[in-house]
Design a protein that fits this description.
About 65% of the residues lie in helices and about 10% in strands. By secondary structure, it is mainly α. The chain has a domain at about 5-70: 2-Layer Sandwich (Double Stranded RNA Binding Domain), CATH 3.30.160.880. Helix 1 crosses helix 2 (about 50-70).
Amino acid sequence: MTENTAVKVKLLERDIQLACPPDEVENLHAAAKHLDNHLRDLRKRSSSSTPEKLALVAAMNMTSQLLKARSGTPDLEALLGVLNGIESTVEQALTADTAAPSPELDGPADSDAIAAT
């Protein structure tokens, strides 16, 4: 089992010590920075709020964004279906193109055809 690493982050000028696996430290710092920016933005819009209330509003906002992103998953599946259809069409076109003989390579060219070009 991997030991957790103590990590210090700063949220609204407060130092907070958290623990996470060593391979997640960068992720934790990025998340803390994102949260701190969100909290600062909320504080600008509502100067009378306590840090605890700001944290709750930030948590609700981020949860709402996460749920919206998750509900978008069926759209990704629809996109995958469209891409599979395009791939199939391209494959069919390439197969038909390679199966059909090329007029330039099929034998001697018609002298009239050469003169016309």
